Amino acid sequence: MANSLHTSSTVPRLGFGEQFLGLNSASDPSFRSLSFTYQFRSMSLKSLESTRQLKSQGEISAVVRAQGGLDPMQVDISLSPRVNSVKPSKTVAITDQATALALAGVPVIRLAAGEPDFDTPAPIADAGINAIREGYTRYTPNAGNLDIRQAICHKLKEENGISYTPDQILVSNGAKQSIVQAVLAVCSPGDEVIIPAPFWVSYPEMARLADATPVILPTSISKNFLLDPKLLESKLTEKSRLLILCSPSNPTGSVIPKRLLEEIAQVVAKHPRLLVLSDEIYEHIIYAPATHTSFASLPGMWERTLTVNGFSKAFAMTGWRLGYLAGPKHFVAACGKIQSQFTSGASSIAQKAAVAALGMGYAGGEAISTMVKAFRDRRDFLVKSFGELEGLKISEPQGAFYLFIDFSYYYGADVEGFGKIENSESLCRYLLDKGQVALVPGSAFGDDSCVRISYAASLTTLQAAVERIKKALVSLRPAVPV
């Protein structure tokens, strides 16, 4: 017989945006806290009494008393310090909650998720359908089928100028899995992972999951959020193990020019322990004259670079869950060892579809170039529209599909019926309450002055969102004129 779960709560009165942003999360001290009392009933225990206490470091303890003549017993339900050190992804939480609100009939415009609004191109979808019909529905080798690894090798040689053999490729359930396995494979407790900010929300948490220390290097919007090689050099120590680069960038859309990558490579070359993880998932979503350079293609960098890519973004295959890692065999084999005990091989169907994707032509061919043109048109519209507003600072994205705007001009404003706009969290909450537009606060990416807007949505949707945001901002007056 199934157990039943009853939840009662004592909840402070929250605005619409506060509830949406999940500001009841006890794992994030920047959020307001909510207290919950849980009562569990189980057929195996006549009664269950529990006392939970949330400690400052997030550890949960409980006392469980079993009835029926047994002596009282204590059950330790504390969590691993490693898990307690990891914060949940705000982008995932916001996206999930926005979807739930939309399904409930709330007219929220969702610009939080980094997910293309296009359908997977027909040749890819057809390959997946055929894989099912032809019986390719069984386990694959842990590293991936040979045909997909060969196709990846061909792609990396032709498009990126880097040579690999199939045993230097590991196919995983998404690029996110590829990255976390790489971090776990090369980092030891106490090692430092160097992460330029603004950063993808998962990088620091992946470092913490490996008991490594994230070291954040700030960048400036005035310099297009590009890493200063001198700052990098000043922060490197004997503990520095991994430098994570993401170009084109999530969340800024910045593309690191080849000359700057070469300067970074010169710094890296001075530190034998330092490896580089190059996240290139957005490489095909790039706007001329910007061009993409794979870090592993630079002189002396192949031996110390772990290149991560995948199919989610450029090929509109987010739900297919397929990514890959390329690098020296020693490191790739270590990642494969983790994967063999973690998830094993990726989806057989997605792998067949990915072979078709890589067969569509250079950089995805016409189907992908059509998507990229649409993204560029959307970018141009947003840059022009927000450029008309007073006080905003914008670095025009050169790739990906995000706009990372400095809204700090409006911080300090008091809004009747809402309160004070103190930071990116409260601004996003305000824009949700007043404009019903869901955005991601820049604090999630390591820059509280900014807000991330995803333009992986139709131009019509973006036009409506801009009008709502502009209307909501009219009520704001900066505390101090800028």
From TrEMBL:
What pathway annotation does it carry?
Amino-acid biosynthesis; L-phenylalanine biosynthesis; L-arogenate from prephenate (L-Asp route): step 1/1; Amino-acid biosynthesis; L-phenylalanine biosynthesis; L-arogenate from prephenate (L-Glu route): step 1/1
Q: Which cofactor does it need?
A: pyridoxal 5'-phosphate
**Gene name in the database record:** LOC109013250
Return the similarity comment. Belongs to the class-I pyridoxal-phosphate-dependent aminotransferase family.
Task: Give the record's keywords alphabetically.
Answer: Aminotransferase, Pyridoxal phosphate, Transferase
A Pfam family: Aminotran_1_2
Query: From what superkingdom does this record's organism come?
Result: Eukaryota
**Start and end of every Aminotransferase class I/classII large domain?**
107-469
Q: Which GO terms describe its molecular function?
A: aspartate-prephenate aminotransferase activity; glutamate-prephenate aminotransferase activity; L-aspartate:2-oxoglutarate aminotransferase activity; pyridoxal phosphate binding; transaminase activity
Protein name in the entry:
Bifunctional aspartate aminotransferase and glutamate/aspartate-prephenate aminotransferase
The GO biological-process annotations, alphabetized, read as: amino acid metabolic process; aromatic amino acid family biosynthetic process, prephenate pathway
